[in-house]
Amino acid sequence: MILAGDIGGTKTLLGLAQDGDLRLDRRYANADFPDFGSLLAAFFSDTRTDPTRLDGACLALAGPIADDGASARLTNLPWTIDAAELAQRFGLPPPCLVNDFAAAAVGAVTSPADQLLDLQAGEPLATAPRLVVGAGTGLGMAILLPNGNGWRCIPGEGGHVAFAPANERQAALWRFLAQRHGRVTWERVVSGPGLSAIHEFLGGGSLSPEQVAELATQDPAGAAGQALDLFLETYGAFAGDMALACLARGGVFLAGGIAARLRGRLADSGFLAAFNAKAGHAAIAARMPVRVAIDPLLGLHGAMRLPATGS
Asked: pTM of the full predicted structure?
């Protein structure tokens, strides 16, 4: 029996997995607890689980992992999670600590077919790298390599690569963002805050990403609809560029919450055209499968499939 966790800035998902299946899961609001240890104690109490009988644990966290893999600090919450302290307090094997996007990436490439939406069938190669990208609060990226019966996950910072405008409107967007930020990265464009910034650039007001998406549905021809179109166009360009960089013939997976929410619009947007617009390498891009991961427990499923023993 393995403990799996997906710990974000506002909520935590915990579950117990056995023989590759998630047997139960619980969701907790982080604000209800002073630290992660208290939250974990509540989970064990709520599920009547004896932690000393667990075989391992893997916790995915929204924050950087220490170089030795033994501790982590959440980016948007003053919590430090120490594997040795948790092991001593609860009688667990020292948990494996991983970045939350790494867990989501593993969850994406191992998702069952009914949790994936195909945008482009492509011609997948079983031994080739997979690329996982995800727009949300930021812009995550990871490369997955087949490794025996599992996966080797290589985290990346592609979201912090410089934004490359593909036409004059995108160049004008670059100038708009450069006045605010100086260096313009892809994350400034392809993220929730990026969608809000694009809406302002096109003459709309200062709105949240959720408000922009809702208005886009009501008025596709207005500033919000145009903002969403431009956002999806740049998202496709980014995904295609990163896929070309690592020759992701195994497939490209969109794992962020934004893609899952906009899955009904993706197929009819400029996403795929921008993904495949690679001049002399367009044929290579067209042979890459592109899929949207829609599993709401993606990070939790990924964590349970990663090694469950830490330092």
From this structure: 0.89
- CA–CA separation, 52 and 42 (whole Å): 15
Q: 133, 240 in Cβ contact below 8 A?
A: no
Same domain, 26 and 163: no
Same-domain pairing of 84 and 199: no
Tell me the H-state helices in 151-208.
168-181, 192-201
Q: How far is the C-alpha of 250 from the C-alpha of 145, rounded, in Å?
A: 9
Q: Per-residue pLDDT tens for 117-160?
A: 999 999 999 999 999 999 988 899 999 999 888 888 898 889 99
What is the C-alpha R_g of the chain? 20
Up-side HSE of residue 240: CA atoms within 13 Å toward CB? 27
| Full residue range of the structural domain in which residue 40 is found | 2-100
Say which CATH number the domain at 238 has: 3.40.367.20
Task: Answer whether 246's CB lies under 8 Å from 124's CB.
Answer: no
